[in-house]
Description:
Strand content of chain A: under 5%
Largest sheet of chain A: 2 strands, antiparallel
Number of strands of chain B: 0
Distance between the termini of chain A: 52 Å
Largest interface: A-B, 17 and 24 residues
Order of helices and strands of chain A: HHHHEEHH
Strand content of chain B: under 5%
Oligomer: heterodimer
Largest sheet of chain B: none
Number of helices of chain B: 6
Strand order of the largest sheet of chain A: 1-2
Radius of gyration of chain A: 19 Å
Helix content of chain B: 40-55%
Structural class of chain B: mainly alpha
Shape of chain B: globular
Number of helices of chain A: 6
Shape of chain A: globular
Order of helices and strands of chain B: HHHHHH
Distance between the termini of chain B: 60 Å
Amino acid sequence: MFHKFQMSVLALAAAAGLMSQSAWAITPGEMLATIKDEAKVAAPAFQGFSAARGENFFKQKHANELSCASCHSDNPATSCKHAKTSKVIRPLAPAANAERFTDATKVEKWFKRNCNDVLERVCTPQEKGDVLAYLLTIKK
Amino acid sequence: MAFNYRNLFHFFVALLLLGGISSVAHAEHDDDDDEVQVVAATNAKWKTECGACHVAFPPRLLPAASWREMMSGLDKHFGTDASLDAATAREIGAFLDKQSGGGKHASPAKPLLRITETGWFKREHDEVSAQTWKNPKVKTPSNCAACHLQAERGNYSEHNIRIPK
C-alpha cells in the first residue's frame, strides 16, 4: 500500500517535471513544415520559402517605423533589448537559443502580437515561413 | 528496494518544500520603510506572460479596478498587442485580483493603469534626479530593472539599487 503511494508520488513528480517543459515540444524544422502546410492552403501557387526574402522582411521597416529587428536586432543570434521597455530579449535564432520555435502555440501567439505591432495586420504564412527560413540559416 | 523508494520519496518531498521555502524567503521585509518592496505571492503564468516584455510588475502596486481595466484591453496594451488566450487571461486576472493593492492607490474616477503615475510611485522616487530619468540606460520609468537589480525576482529593496551612470 505504502509502495503504491510512493509510486504515485513519483509519477506525479515526473509528470510535473514533464509539464514544466513544453507539453507539445516540436523542432523548428517541424514548425516550418506546419507553416508550409498553411502557406499551401493560403496560396495554391505557393513556391516555397526564401531565406533572403525573410531577411529583407525581418530588417525592413513597416508601419510605425518598426521592424522585427527593432526588438530582435539585426543579428538575431545575439541578445538584444526591447525597443520600448529595454527588457533583454534572448536570441531569436534557434542556433543561438534552443527554445525558439519549439512550441507552436507560443510561436502563433508572438507572430500574432508582433505582426499587429509592426505591420498593423497579421502576417501571411508566406511571410512567417520566409522569416523562419531566414532565422534557420543563422549560425551561432 | 523499499529503502531506495523512500530516499526518492524524501527527495521529492524536499523539492516541494524548497519551492515553499523560497517563496517565504522572498517575502522577507526590509526595515528601511514600510512600503511594498518584495513580491511575495507568485503565479507561473503571471510571471511568464506579464514578464515577457517588461518586469512582471508587483500586483500590489495597483488596485483591483486598475488590473481589471488592464486585462480587458490587452490587445491595445500601451500601444502594443499583448493579447492572451482566454484561459490564461482568466487565471492571471484572478491572481491580480487577489493580490492587488488596497484603496490607497485607488482613483475613484478612472482607474490608473500606469504604476508610474500613482502617488506611491512618485513619492518613492522623488529623490531621483531628472538627469537619471533621462539616462538612455533607464529610458523609461517603467524600466524597474535599470536601477532595481533584483526587480526580475520581485525584490525592490533599497539595498539592491544601483543608479546607472
